[in-house]
Amino acid sequence: MKSHLNILSRLQGAGALPFADELLPFAERVAREALEALSPTRCAGCERAGALICQDCLAALTLIDPRHSCTRCGAPFGDLLCTECSVEGTSSAMSEALDRCLACAVYAHPLPRIIKAYKDAGERRLAPYLAELLYDTALHAQVVAPERLGGVLSGADAVAFVPATAAAFRRRGFDHMEAIARPFCELSGVPLLDALVKYGHGDQRELGREERRERAQGMYETVEDVHGRRLLLIDDVITTGATMATASAELKRAGAAAVDGIAIARVW
Ligand SMILES: [Zn+2]
Ligand SMILES: [Zn+2]
């Protein structure tokens, strides 16, 4: 496994990983692809013309340091568990269903705009960049925090993703996490397992925390053989963690040996 970007270790100042030198910087690649695009490309984070994600927006990401994140819910600043997960009885669904969890960055500028541009405005060219962000996060985490997140990528037998509902699929014309999972798997060499289907049509973003927890119950079904497998489950945003927990619990129910979760953004 090789890092294509190594942006996270650069931005986090955690020291360069040993295999980054021969590779093109992320911003350069984004800029180059922008020139090749037929229509004028604007930054999904700030609307500036030139690149899909500009250098300022990349630098503005509030990256989560995997050496100091909550391994249960991906929150930043939880040296072992975050303040929410370390309180008895909270986030219990997540802790039971997920073995470990991490997220690339805090859900703050520019990620809300970038994710919205990708999911709702149909800027599908963002998929490979979001895949690389996830990939670098996982790679970085297992290197800099081996005792907490070792093998989170290299130890996975397959990558699964939290699927869209049929209604969301129809509205957007694509499954937004599948479109990220595919390039993620190409980068990592870990096979894709399209293991879950999702029922229901609710858009959860308008709901409160409790409502989300309830609606998320029982919405997934495992449609591939996951028995005995160690899975890495990817999703876009962790808010309460209910979605990730429910999807993971279903995979465990179907026999998965382990499920780690990784998300692009963590609301915190
Ligand atoms: Zn920007
Ligand atoms: Zn936590």
Structure description:
The protein is α/β, with parallel strands linked by helices. The chain has a single domain, classed as 3-Layer(aba) Sandwich (Rossmann fold), CATH 3.40.50. Helix content is 37%, strand content 13%. The protein contains 11 helices and 6 strands. The protein has helices spanning 7-12, 26-36, 55-60, 92-97, 111-119, 127-144, 146-149, 166-172, 176-188, 209-216, 242-253, and strands at 100-106, 158-161, 196-198, 220-222, 230-238, 258-266. A 4-stranded parallel β-sheet has the order 1-6-5-2, sandwiched between helices. Strand 5, helix 11 (242-253) and strand 6 form a beta-alpha-beta unit. Helix 6 packs across helix 9 (176-188). The chain is globular, with a radius of gyration of 18 Å. It starts with 6 loop residues before the first helix and ends with a strand. One zinc ion (ZN) binds at residues 43, 45-46, 48, 54, 56-57, 110.
